[in-house]
Amino acid sequence: MLSVNKDQILLEWCNKNPFLQNIILFNFLGENNGQTAIIPISETVVSENIDRSKLINYDFMWQASFELSSNTDNLNTETLFDMRQWQEWIEEQNDSGDLPDFGDNYCMLDIVNLSEMPNLAQTYNNSMAKYQFPARLIYLKL
Questions:
Q1: Alpha-carbon distance 24 to 133, whole Å?
Q2: Which secondary-structure segment (H or E) carries 52?
């Protein structure tokens, strides 16, 4: 039986990002400008220690829908800049030790970006695009 809703805790932590335009949804990304989602990828036991604690990687994708421009304006570069700020925010939270808190039976170690920059994942017919970048939460389950 699961004792803590890790997905909800991660979602609430991600919603603290001051650069967001909208509240993040879990496992759902709409096509409206500024909509954002956290999409879980995997939760993998990396190693199990002699004390039965487990080192675990929780990988997730941070996705967002933004308008896409086919003109020479700076809309596309501004969008990428905004998402890079999200990645920088993750690094700052990691450096300051402000990590999601799963409770007493967990020791949070790191949250890291798994790519150096967000990428354009999909374009839509309505001049919208999906941008994304992967991240990893690393913790010990005691």
A1: 14
A2: none
Q: Are strands 128-141 and 119-123 parallel, antiparallel or unpaired?
A: antiparallel
Token readout for 18 is 């001051």
> In terms of pTM, does the model score above 0.90?
yes
pLDDT digits (tens, 9 = 90+) for 44-67: 999 999 999 999 999 999 999 999
Report whether 108 contacts 101 (CB < 8 A).
Answer: yes
CA atoms within 13 A of residue 11's CA, in its CB half-sphere: 16
Residue range 15-37, pLDDT digits in tens = 999 999 899 999 999 989 999 99
Q: Which domains does the chain have, with CATH numbers?
A: 6-141 (3.30.2000.30)
Largest CA distance in the chain: 59
Range 86-94, long-range pairs (CB < 8 A, 24+ positions): 86/17, 86/19, 86/20, 86/62, 86/118, 86/133, 87/113, 87/117, 87/118, 87/133, 89/17, 89/18, 89/19, 90/135
Whether the per-residue pLDDT at 3 is higher than 90: the answer is no
Instruction: State mean pLDDT over 2-15.
Output: 93
